[in-house]
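Table S2 (text version). Query chain:
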Amino acid sequence: MKKKCMLAVGMLLVLSMLSGCGAKKDGPMDQVQEKVSNVEVENPQTGTMKDEYMYSGTIEPKDTVDVTASMTGTVKAVNFKEGDKVNKGDVLFTIDTKDLENTIKTNKASLASADASIQSAKTNLELANGATMQTQIENAKNAVTNAKNSIATAQTALDTAGVSVNNAKTTLDDKQNTYNINKQLFDAGGLSKQALDDSQTALTAAQNAYTQAVNSKQQAEVTLSQAKSSLENAQKSYDILVNQTSKENVTKAQDSLNTAQASRKSVQAQIEASESKLSDAVVKSPISGTVSECNVTAGAQLLTAKTPFTIVDLNTVDIQVNVSEDVVPNLKVGDSVQITIPTLSNHAITGHISEISDVSNADGTFKVKVEMSNTDGKLKAGMFAEVNFAKSTSDGAVIVPRDSVLRDGDDYYAFVIEDGKAKKVDVTIGIDAGETIEVKSGIKPSDKVVTKGQTYLDDGSKVKVVSDNGTEITEATTEATTENPKAKKSKGENK
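Corresponding structure-token output:
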């Protein structure tokens, strides 16, 4: 009975509550609480953005020199090992020269023998010629030369005399004509006796001069004839003396001398070659650098199949990359490039293009060589490198994290915070560097750009700015935080 009463009371209470919910209230309806989204914000950075092509390659020495020896033999000493630093002119290794020195001694003995053979051949040649006969032949030869000179002198004198005769004859004819005219004038009474006598005196002088000139010419002819006779006699004497010498004996003696001299020359050449090899036995480094290979061992035979030493100069290194044909036209020798060596750090190192191939590879790419300094020696041959060629550059760019920019079809937008609310702004983007992006319009450096939580926002959404650990940031704290953003840097130099 008691349980039934309690059940009835419960049912009445439920009915009463349902009736209350359906009743009309006299006051306003309870308002629904507005949603607040937590976001993180940053101020944009300003700096330089670069659009780059990235290619990979390996570091190679600028200069690599294989050091070889000009001779073979037993290695006497090795002064450096792989990894050692060497300077230009340092002695890398030496070759034993004992056998070579013995060869030089033998050749010098042969040289002395050759000298003795030359002296003997000279003596035989003198005997074959005969010292007295040689003097007589030389004197006869000089006589022929003198006779020829006398003929030349006599011929010159004769030519001069001939000219004198011609001149004297011309003068004589002139004086004769003058006298004949004056005689006719005198006979006609038109000329004084004194004038006629003067004309006669001039004519007589001209006749004497002509006679003397003729006599001189005749004497010159006699002298020339005598000179020709002397030459004929001198030539005959010379021919007789030469023919009296035994040409056969002289020829044999001369041949012996020539053979002895040739033998000596050959031995001398062998000595010089051997002495030159003595210097070849000392092998020096042609450049300063690092020993990358050493294939010689003291006491062992020098192997011709292997390069004894390889020296590399790592003060300057090269990186060769294969660049696609659409990139090559944008590059030129001397352009600066940014290089990253992942195994060392992500800090970019500046290098420059030193060479661009004019001929493509089989795959259509072009070899481009980049050069960079390595004076501190941190870069090693074979290290992996990333080379960035600048495609375009934007100075003074407004830079934001890449994730803060959202896309709607072909349009881009972002959210900035104004008065505790998210404001959707349309933006125009520029260079995309992966982690960061350039905003050309729509965002100012002073804006607070939403970098986290933006995907859940609408224009006008109420927001709460928090730190990366979720702690709410006040307005004052927000100002301090956004003035020192944690945004990742773009590929470029920030101002």
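Notes on Table S2: Residues 131-244 form one domain. Confidence is low (pLDDT under 50) at residues 1-31, 476-495.
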